[in-house]
Design brief:
The protein is an alpha+beta fold. It is built from 29 helices and ten strands. It is found in: Membrane.
C-alpha cells in the first residue's frame, strides 16, 4: 500500500530535500506525538508501537530490525534500569525519609522554613538518586509536614517536584533524561559526549539556586491553597453529600442478603462501606457478611440514588457525616488516606472493578482525582491513570500494606514504617562508590558498569532482596526508552533531522547564535509539556546537532540546551512524572502549573542559555 503512494511523490522532491524516507519518518513522528498527547495508549505501549512501525516500514524509515530493538541494549536504558534499582535500595533503608523528617522538625510550623526544608532536601538528594523516586518517597513526608504545621500541602508539593528537577541537573545520574541525552549525543558523534558524571554540575548549581530563590519568593505567592491546611478529606473532596448512614428496617428485603448482593451495582451507583452492629463495626472482608435488621450501613452514593435505594430496600436515613472526624468517631481501627497511582502500577489502564480493589486491598475508594477533576460517582468503571489520587477508607494494617506496595504512593507516612535503617551505611557507601568510580579519570569506568556493580552490591549487602529487583524498576520508563531510541535513529538516518535542521538554521539569518540556542530551549520545553521528557530529547537532539553543524556552532552547547529544557518542564503536569505525583495530593488544576511554571520556565531559559554560553561557549573551541 505504501509503495505506490510514495512513488507518486513529485520528482523534484529530492531537490527540495523531501524524500520518501523523510515523509514516512515525519508521519511516524506525528503519530507518536498524537498518541503521547492524547494518551490513547499508555506511553510505554505507544513507544513499542512506534518501534514496531519503524521496523515494519524499514525500507523507508531505514531502521533495521537490529536497530529497531537496539533500545533494549542501549547503555542509556541499562543505566536507567540500574539507577532505578539503586534508588529503590536507598528508599528501603529510609534514609531520604529520615533526612526529610529531620528537616521537618527544623521547619516546625513556619511556612517559609517548611518550603526551605522541602527544597533543601529534594534538590541536593535528586542529584545522586533518580529524582522520580525521590519525589515518590517525599510526598507523604511533605504532606505530613504541611498538615502538622497547619499549612496547605499545595504550597509545598509543587515546589517539591520542581526542586527535584533542579537537583536532577546536578549530575549525570540525577534523571533518566540526562543519561538518555548523553547516549543519543554520543551516538551522533558530538564532541564531549557521553557526558561525564559532573559535566554540567556548575550550571546545575546555578539552576538550583536561581530556581530555589524563585520558589521562595515569586513562586510561593503564585501557589494556590487548593488543599485545606487542616486534614479533612471529606471537606477537601466535597463528598459530604456522598457518604451517609442508614438503618436496615425489619421489613427490608435485603435482610439475610450478603453485602455483595444487597445492592444491584449494575442499577445503582452505591457501595456499602461498613456495617455497625451491636456497637461493633465491620469493614474488612464484609462482602460475604449477611445483613440483619437493625444494622447501620455506611453508604457511598449520591442523594438521589440514596432516596431510591432507601425506598426500595427499606432503609431509614440516620445521619450524614459532615467531617472526617465525625466519620471516624468511635472507629479507631480505620482512617482516610490518599493513595497515588505510581508509574508502572499494575492498576494503570484498569478499573476498580477489574482489579477487585476492595477485596484485594481491604479498602474502600470514596472518590478520586484524575487530571485535576474530582470523580465522586460511578467510580468502579473509570479507567485509572498514572498520577490519579484515590481517597481510600481502610484499616491501619491495610494502609500499611498499601504503603509497602510499589503500585502506590500513600500520601501519609505509616505509623510504624519497616525501614532497613541498619543498611543505611551500606546504601550510602554503594551510591558514593558508583559516583566515585564513574567520575574518576585514572581508571575510566563506564557508568553502566558501575551502576550494575552497585546493583550487585545492594543485593550482596542485604540492602535489597533478589526478589525486589524486578519490582524496583519502573518498566514504563524502560519500555519508553527502548521504544523511542529507534525513533531517534530514524530521524537521523532518514535525513529528517538534516531537513528540519536546515529550516531551523535559517533563523540564524535573523537571530544571533545565542538566539537560536534560546529557541531550542523554549521549543524543547514546550514539546516536553505535552509528551514525555525522554521522547522530547530523542526528537530534539538530532535536530539540534544538525542545526549547530550548519551554523558552525558548538553542538555540545545545543545538546545541553535541549537536555536542560527537557529535564526542567514546569508548564504542565503531564510532561514530567514528578509533576503527576503531586498533582492529586496537591489538589492542583492544570492552570496552576502554567501560572507558577511559565515565569520559572522563562527565567531559567535565560539563565540556562547564558550559563551555557559562559561555561562552554556557543562557538566550537
Amino acid at each position: 500500500m505504501l509503495g505506490p503512494v510514495l512513488s507518486v511523490l513529485p520528482a523534484q522532491a529530492g531537490a527540495t530535500g523531501l524524500t520518501p524516507s523523510i515523509v514516512v519518518v515525519l508521519v511516524v513522528v506525528l503519530l507518536a506525538l498524537v498518541l503521547f498527547v492524547t494518551e490513547a495508549l499508555p506511553i510505554d505501549v505507544t513507544a513499542i508501537t512506534i518501534m514496531v512501525v519503524l521496523m515494519v516500514l524499514g525500507p523507508w524509515t531505514e531502521v533495521s530490525v537490529a536497530e529497531g530493538i537496539s533500545g533494549f541494549s542501549n547503555p542509556a536504558t541499562v543505566t536507567v534500569l540500574a539507577m532505578l534499582i539503586l534508588s529503590s535500595g536507598v528508599s528501603k533503608t529510609g534514609l531520604v525519609q529520615s533526612v526529610g523528617k529531620r528537616m521537618a522538625s527544623f521547619a516546625g510550623d513556619n511556612p517559609m522554613k517548611q518550603l526551605g526544608a522541602t527544597i533543601g532536601v529534594a534538590g541536593p538528594v535528586s542529584g545522586f538518586i533518580n529524582n522520580t523516586p525521590v519525589v515518590a518517597i517525599l510526598v507523604p513526608v511533605i504532606t505530613d509536614l504541611a498538615h502538622e504545621g497547619k499549612s496547605s500541602p499545595s504550597k509545598l508539593l509543587m515546589p517539591l517536584s520542581f526542586a527535584s528537577m533542579f537537583g536532577g541537573m546536578l549530575t549525570l545520574i540525577g534523571t533518566s533524561t540526562n543519561i538518555l541525552a548523553s547516549s543519543v549525543a554520543a551516538d551522533l558523534g558530538v564532541a564531549g559526549a557521553p557526558f561525564s558524571m559532573f559535566e554540567f554540575t556548575s550550571l546545575g548549581v546555578v539552576v538550583l539556586v536561581v530556581g530555589s530563590i524563585y520558589l521562595m519568593t515569586v513562586g510561593y505567592r503564585l501557589l494556590p491553597e487548593r488543599v485545606p491546611a487542616r486534614d479533612d478529606y471529606l471537606e477537601e473532596y466535597e463528598i459530604q453529600d456522598y457518604v451517609t448512614e442508614v438503618v436496615v428496617r425489619e421489613d427490608s428485603p435485603i435482610v439475610g442478603e450478603t453485602v455483595a448482593r444487597a445492592i444491584d451495582d449494575a442499577v445503582f451507583d452505591a457501595d456499602i462501606l461498613q456495617i455497625t452492629r451491636d456497637h461493633e463495626t465491620f469493614f474488612e472482608g464484609i462482602d460475604s457478611k449477611r445483613i440483619r435488621a437493625g444494622d447501620v450501613l455506611m453508604l457511598r452514593t449520591d442523594r438521589e440514588t440514596l432516596a431510591t435505594i432507601a425506598e426500595l430496600d427499606g432503609l431509614d436515613l440516620t445521619g450524614l457525616p459532615r467531617t472526617e472526624a465525625e466519620m471516624e468517631e468511635g472507629r479507631d481501627e480505620q482512617s482516610l488516606v490518599e493513595v497515588v497511582i505510581q508509574s508502572g502500577s499494575a492498576l494503570v489502564g484498569e478499573t476498580l472493578t477489574s482489579t477487585s480493589f476492595r477485596q484485594r486491598y481491604d479498602a474502600n475508594v470514596l472518590a478520586f482525582r484524575s487530571r485535576g477533576e474530582t470523580v465522586r460517582s460511578r467510580l468502579d468503571d473509570v479507567e485509572l491513570r498514572i498520577g490519579d489520587t484515590l481517597l481510600v477508607q481502610a484499616p491501619a494494617d491495610s494502609i500499611d500494606r498499601l504503603a509497602q506496595n510499589p503500585d502506590f504512593i500513600v500520601a501519609r507516612e505509616p505509623e510504624e514504617p519497616s525501614y532497613r535503617t541498619g543498611k543505611i551505611p551500606h546504601a550510602v557507601a554503594i551510591i558514593v562508590g558508583v559516583v566515585a568510580l564513574a567520575s574518576q579519570p585514572f581508571l575510566p569506568v563506564n557508568i553502566v558498569v558501575t551502576a550494575l556493580g552497585g546493583v550487585v552490591a545492594m543485593v550482596l549487602t542485604g540492602v535489597l532482596r533478589p526478589s525486589e529487583l524486578y519490582e524496583s524498576v519502573d518498566w514504563d520508563v524502560i519500555f519508553l526508552l527502548a521504544g523511542v531510541i529507534p525513533l531517534g535513529i530514524a530521524i537521523e538516518q532518514s535525513g529528517a533531522a538534516a531537513l528540519i535542521g536546515r529550516l531551523v538554521a535559517s533563523t540564524g539569518e535573523v537571530l544571533p547564535l545565542i538566539g537560536v540556542l534560546w529557541v531550542f530551549y523554549i521549543v524543547t520545553g514546550l514539546v516536553t509539556s505535552v509528551i514525555s521528557n525522554n521522547a522530547s530529547v530523542v526528537l530534539m537532539i538530532p535536530v539540534a546537532v544538525e542545526t549547530a553543524s550548519r551554523l558552525g556552532a558548538n553542538a555540545f552547547a545545543f545538546v545541553l540546551a535541549v537536555t536542560f529544557a527537557a529535564s526542567t518542564a514546569f508548564l504542565s503536569p503531564v510532561g514530567y512524572q514528578t509533576n503527576l505525583f503531586v498533582y492529586g495530593p496537591g489538589g492542583y488544576k492544570f492552570s496552576d502549573y502554567v501560572r507558577v511554571g511559565a515565569p520559572l520556565q522563562v527565567l531559567l531559559s535565560v539563565v540556562t542559555v547564558l550559563g551555557i554560553v559562559f561555561f562552554w561557549g556557543v562557538r566550537p573551541a
